Amino acid sequence: METQNLFIHRLTEDDAAFILQLLNSPGWLQQIGDRGVRTIDDARDYLLKGPMSSYEKNGFGLMCVSLKTDDIPIGICGLIKRDTLDDVDIGFALLPGYEGKGYAYEAAAAIMTLAAKLNMVRVVAITLPTNIKSVKLLERLGLSFEKMIRLPGDEEELMLMSKLL
User: Fold this and answer.
1) What are phi and psi of 92, to 5 degrees?
2) Helix axes 103-117, 132-140, angle to 10 degrees
3) Using CA atoms, how far apart are residues 137 and 83, in angstroms rounded to an integer?
4) Best CA proximity match to 78, nearest among 89, 87, 67
5) pLDDT single digits (tens) 118-147
6) How far is CA 83 from the centre of its chain?
């Protein structure tokens, strides 16, 4: 996919160095959580078992977001089908230097359009209530607060937000 400023495409094993950087960025660790990805091999494993497996199983997954100007990866955004949620959820994360510039909204809006094209009826999102930037972005996309939930194995309660398409 392409937006005004971004390319959005499937992740591959070649994105391992970028994924290693993103998953160990302060924002990811604080707002999403430590995935234990410490090496390039860990990052490849994350890609194979996560996004790339989701493409095969579901036809969608987290995708690489890069700037059109230089095709440098700046983040990920996409649809995720978790066993613990009834609906597909949207997720996004950017490297610190690219936050606050409208890129997350631009990518997420394109992903919401994709969800509609895939005939999804409802999209949800989960976020920490303290992650004000994500809550505001999700509200801007048209999602609204539904309830607090706790995913299996998680200590913290998360906001479940949703939107009918």
Assistant:
1) -160, 150
2) 50
3) 24
4) 89
5) 999 999 999 999 999 999 999 999 999 999
6) 16
Q: How far apart are CA 147 and CA 118, in angstroms?
A: 26
Q: Per-residue confidence at 153, pLDDT binned at 50, 70, 90?
A: confident
Rounded Cα distance, 96 and 99, in Å: 6
Question: If you average pLDDT over residues 57-70, what whole number do you get?
Answer: 97
Please give the domain boundaries of the chain with CATH numbers for all domains: 6-164 (3.40.630.30)
Query: Could you tell me the two tokens for 97?
Result: 């230097």
The pLDDT, as a whole number, for residue 154 is 83
Residues in the chain: 165
What's the confidence (pLDDT) of residue 126? 97
Q: Alpha helix locations (H) across 14-147?
A: 16-23, 26-31, 40-49, 51-58, 103-117, 132-140
Phi and psi dihedrals of 8, rounded to 5? -125, 115
